[in-house]
User: Fold these one by one.
Assistant:
Number 1:
Amino acid sequence: MIADIVTIAWKEYKDFLLQRGGRGMLTSLALMVVVFGVFLPLQSGRSWVESPVSLVSWVWLPLFLVTGMIADSFAGERERHTLETLLASRLSDRAILLGKMAAAIGYALGMTVLFLIVGLITVNVTNWDGQLLLYPAASLVAMLGFGGLAAVLVAGLGVLVSLRAATVRQAAQSLSVGILILVWVPFMIMLFLPRDVQQRLLAILQTLDTRLIVAVLLVALLVLDTVVVGLAMVRFQRTRLILD
Amino acid sequence: MDYAVETQGLTRSFGPLVAVDAIDLQVPRGTIFGFLGPNGAGKTTTIRLLLGLLEPTAGSARVLGYDTQTQADRIRQHSGALLEHSGIYERLSAEDNLEFYGRVWHIPAGERKARIKELLTHLGLWERRKEIAGSWSRGMKQKLAVARALLHRPSLVFLDEPTAGLDPVAAAALRDDLAALVAEEGVTVFLTTHNLAEAEKLCRLIGVIRQGRLLAIGSPDSLRSSVMHPRLEITGRGFNEQVIAAIKARPEVASLQAQDGHLIIDLRANLEVAPLVSLLVNAGVEIEEVCKQKASLEEAFLTLMEMEK
């Protein structure tokens, strides 16, 4: 099973990186590294590394990276007429599904870690005062924990969307809109709440233990992940896919 | 007898449409079986049922001894398939396409490399293995898909119209490669096609399907003779009324037409024609040419289609 998941992920990476002739995709990836690993850290200076809020605020990044790859997973195979041949192979439904999800999550987390490392180097080089600057451990763990679990959630949702979408474009659009709503709607609601309600909510939040909030959110994400991945497993059945 | 494919009343409906209608089929191991039928006859649905990609509405099927509903994973493990579309990953190179499926079938690395080289060399694609498959012609992609289907040395290969959409030269080349590879590997082939020449050239056993129903099954020869009797055409001089009456009276003669020094005789069965020729010679007919014609598979197929209308 593990070998099959790795095989699917290997194919997904090759297929994904060779989009637009390979060179175009590598240019896009390099551009992202420049923006998130060099340009933004240069703009933020030392606070890019030292501020715990700065780091955690980048939790959304893996979500968008997952979206790019997972939308292509099944809708792309269907659009390019390769899905049926894959389904006619000896691979189990579960290996195909988990292989595709693992590839997308691995790509998102891998790129995020790369941005963080390049950002760290950039900030240290441009702000060197004889002491190495490092990300706060708790923020780093929270960012990767939330980012990882959120990436699993989006990958699961992405599979469900990609299985139903007729084209990759349609899948990508649906997912992007969904994530925008997921990320921005809570902020927008907060912004438009009456000032006294906002103050009361903030007062309640300040009385709560931060570690407790983080733990509760992590558990909630974990439960959501389990439900969504479970749904994806139920939905992903050869006999149903052929009929789609 | 050991059958690679065995179905009993295999049926699949999509709402009111019966795509496969109570098919009883037996394909012995090591046979190249041709499944003939017009577009929409139910050929692709049958393959999907046999591979366990679809569940039957009624009936059952066993492929390589495994039940399609409960042991489909075993069937797919021992089968190869070239389905309606070639299924080639067009962004990957030809070599990577085979590398991927080699890994899927857990072929050890060394053996995988050797097998890929063997197949691509056989199909004349080895020198171009590093090229992106999407840049290839349709014929080359189909050849690559054939290589992929045979990569793991399956016991049974499903080929769904492998030469569809190819120009005649590419189709003939693929047919030759396919015949040579299949003979070399000794696999059972389940081939769907509506190309009758292809079926005639490759298949030892043929099934004819229309609107989901299996109309006939047998060797190409038996199919021909089951729907159309052999015809004898004799050219010569001296076909008088007495001779014609004598010939008509023979039990093996179904009908006879005489026109300008030609006798066209439809025989009741594929019998010896020497007694008829002797009769003509003894009656003083000067024979120039005797030609025994069999119905082509195309004629047999068309007759079957007409009979079912």
Number 2:
Amino acid sequence: MRVAYWPGCVSRGFTPELHGSMARIAPLLDIELVPLDRASCCGAGVIAEHNKELADTLNARTFALAQKADGTALMMNICSTCQGSQSECQERLDASAEYRAKINQTLAGEGLSYEKGLTNKNLLWLLVEELGLDELRSRVRRPLTDLRVGPFYGCYIVRPEDRVGIDDAHPRDTYLDQVIDALGGSVTDYAGTHKCCGFPIITMNKDASLKQAGRHIGDALDAGADCLVTPCPLCHLNLDLQQPMAARAVGRNLGMPVLHLPQLVGLALGLAPDQLGLQRHVVRPTSVIDWTTAVVGEVGAPAAGG
Amino acid sequence: MAEFTLRLRRYDPESGEAPYWEEHTIELEPHRSVLEAILQAKARFDGSIGIRCSCRAAICGSCGVRINGRPDLACHKHLDRAEKQSRDGVIEVEPMGNMPVIKDLIVDMEEVHWKKIRRVTPWLIPKQPVPEREYIVPRESMVDVTQSMACIQCGACVSDCLSMEVDPAFIGPAALAKAYRFVGDPRDDQHFERLQDLAEDPAGIYDCTHCFMCIDACPKGVAPMSQIMRLRRRAGNDFKISDRNNGERHEHAFVSLIKQYGLLNEAELLPRSYGGDSPLAKFKPAATTELATSLPVIAKALLRRKVTPAAVFKPHRLPKQDLSAIAGIYDTIEGREQREEFNIYISGKDEDR
């Protein structure tokens, strides 16, 4: 499958292991990535908070570039926040021909134009709806047996339900659970799975932000998870990069490894941890990986720590 | 008639006993409400079940509860739907969150709801002199505020607000939606004062974590978070209120960094959110204090090569020609005399016409 690939900003900035691991797993899943390297930041909701028309125009430009990418079936992203902010802009653009025409007028200088009805899917949705769980299962080389994984979705990919297309036929708020299961792992059910990591207010109310991250990690820990997995790099920043600070904010030890979705998939597809950039995390995924043999799910490795 | 099983969370704080779950099987037609099921259980099996209700028609806002873990009005949920959404075929009903339980399904809304509604001055402060006859206002601005006026004060959004879960002081979605009702009303005379008050309050508009919980929680389509974002847009962009919570600075820095680089430059965003929108921001006291407290995090990120010096000093940016196209987009839009704000709530969708 050939897709117009939008990696987002953070996956090439502060979480480079995300973009890297996506590039690693793509050929193993027969996904051909056509990078949208001329597209701009989605605005992460902040540009829309400043000026909706500006956010809508920047994303319409991205969509127009995706529609021009030769032979691609759809646009794919690897960030819950990109998915949510872009879906919000697309909802407005698709709602009104008049508004769309106005936005396209601004893009005309570059010879770009967005046509209603782009399909834009996060890797998670693509795995379930396009590739299919059976197909994914058949490609697993190293099942995540005995690995207890807590899914952490990220707000933007599960809410609002109608905008992100969750209905009886598309229970997208359960896809991460289904993928973990297809990879051979077991899902840890815990309170924070659909909650907010707190990242959006890290500069405005740091204490509340870190308490959110710390609380959800703590809940997963209490529920017995070995690690968390998330399709959102911004969640990853608060859950992994900030985890030592989050632990301090909630007054308990955490030491919970947090994997990006393509990393978890990559491990099951047989890739080595260092190929997936796991050594770059702040919380070392020692409970996930036995670093001596790189076998997944081994117990007996030293407890995860900062 | 069909059978449905309810699992009710029972709790009487005065008893000294811990909360517990109790199951009752009732008989009702599938299109009847969860509230009717609770009332039947109360009538047939246990008169001591505590539930607050009145209109039974989703307009009085009394019967807010959590059904299968999600906030809703008990009278607004059909039994067949509730059963379908349950984990194990049993409809689970518990009191709303973020509020103390008075008894069973009844919560005390005073501290986290009513006090906060009063906190936002929930009445019109008219422009003077008051005209002798009616005010004439544009239709769009009235349609606009009807969205927040649709609130029935049920507390469903407050129940599941994820900021409030860790910061009970947060003014919260219901009260902030109410605040927009007056900030969006052209007859009100105190837009700036209201916005400045809510922007400067550490528990105000910038304490919302943008999680969309309240949008899905609201049974009346108020979309409180969207109203909070509009309060921010009016405070930060229209009135340029530079608040002590870094809200406006963060927004301003983000928007201007995307113009400059096309992509987000995280290493610049952090200091500028504290110190203001300039490359020199990192040397300002507000930013240096913050950077110093974050030093262990930064050091570890560098050590693990998660963040490389190149990412900090030579950040990713788009090719020149794309950057100039993006600058053109900014100039066109920021140069408009009036900010264009397309709102589906007001305009509707093409296919619905």
